[in-house]
């Protein structure tokens, strides 16, 4: 399971979170700040809750819920009772946010490659901006009169009254470590012989400049070597696996993939900004994860699978 979005309740007594078990099983939960048994708040079958926003009163939560490419917004009461459906469209309503006073909420409506930022007041609903799809995120400014919009790798301030959009400039600088070039010897491991189909015991691997240079089927003489030596203690050594179809939608998936031997993934469809952000974060050492090769966004027509 992965933990998705996380938020404190306004009184600080609870932590709300999305417990993401699979593509078709992710629900809203909460747990008391002091610990204890977590409480599941949504129970849709073969459905997926993504984003949510807490209303100031503490009893209502706006939840994005859906399946595949479509999702609608619902208002649920954490104390029980039926959910109230707020949208019913062919689009996906996502990245829901609630104003500090609770009188407005906003969301991104995305459909057929186009995003609309929608603001809903007590008596009005209006689209305040339109742009190409790029996995946007929203949060209300404390003044309640504007939104901070994350669009790809850019930040904007958007006025809720008229949609006036102002870029928020910023500069981010990182230094990327060079690829490892140290030599290394791994001894006393089992290897699979892909040609003969046998297991080679007590094999040794010589790594130079970060690449496998030699494979020895007999114990390797390590006396006098000036490079690090790892004793495999008879374990089986495999090359990194490549997952040829993995949607890297959650940055928390990375350590689990590595733990299962997956060192490279091919992502056949995701928001390009997210995929590149994950790729860069892994290269920078901010996240642990495999090498990411992405095809970019999914391509489909109206009424298609996605």
From TrEMBL:
One of its GO terms (molecular function) is hydrolase activity, acting on carbon-nitrogen (but not peptide) bonds. This is Amidohydrolase-related domain-containing protein. Pfam families: PD40 (PF07676). It comes from marine metagenome. Gene3D superfamilies: Metal-dependent hydrolases (3.20.20.140), TolB, C-terminal domain (2.120.10.30), Urease, subunit C, domain 1 (2.30.40.10). SUPFAM superfamilies: Composite domain of metallo-dependent hydrolases (SSF51338), Tricorn protease N-terminal domain (SSF69304).
């Amino acid at each position: 399971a992965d933990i998705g979005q996380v938020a404190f309740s306004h009184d600080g007594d609870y932590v709300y979170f999305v417990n993401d078990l699979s593509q078709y099983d992710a629900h809203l939960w909460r747990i008391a700040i002091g610990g204890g048994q977590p409480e599941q708040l949504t129970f849709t079958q073969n459905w997926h809750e993504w984003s949510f926003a807490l209303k100031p009163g503490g009893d209502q939560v706006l939840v994005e819920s859906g399946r595949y490419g479509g999702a609608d917004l619902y208002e649920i009461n954490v104390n029980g009772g039926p959910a109230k459906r707020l949208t019913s469209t062919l689009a996906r309503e996502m990245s829901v946010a609630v104003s500090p006073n609770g009188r407005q909420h906003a969301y991104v409506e995305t459909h057929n490659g186009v995003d609309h930022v929608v603001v809903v007041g007590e008596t009005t609903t209006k689209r305040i901006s339109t742009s190409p799809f790029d996995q946007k995120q929203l949060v209300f400014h404390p003044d309640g009169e504007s939104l901070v919009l994350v669009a790809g790798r850019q930040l904007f301030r958007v006025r809720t009254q008229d949609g006036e959009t102002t870029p928020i400039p910023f500069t981010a600088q990182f230094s990327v470590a060079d690829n490892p070039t140290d030599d290394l010897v791994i001894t006393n491991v089992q290897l699979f012989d892909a040609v003969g189909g046998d297991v080679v015991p007590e094999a040794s691997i010589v790594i130079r400049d970060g690449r496998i240079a030699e494979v020895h089927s007999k114990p390797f003489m390590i006396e006098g070597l000036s490079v690090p030596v790892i004793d495999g203690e008879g374990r089986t050594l495999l090359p990194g696996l490549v997952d040829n179809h993995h949607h890297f939608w959650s940055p928390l998936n990375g350590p689990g993939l590595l733990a299962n031997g997956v060192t490279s993934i091919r992502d056949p469809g995701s928001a390009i900004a997210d995929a590149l952000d994950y790729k860069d974060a892994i290269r920078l050492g901010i996240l642990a994860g495999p090498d990411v090769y992405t095809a970019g966004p999914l391509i489909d027509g109206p009424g298609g699978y996605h």
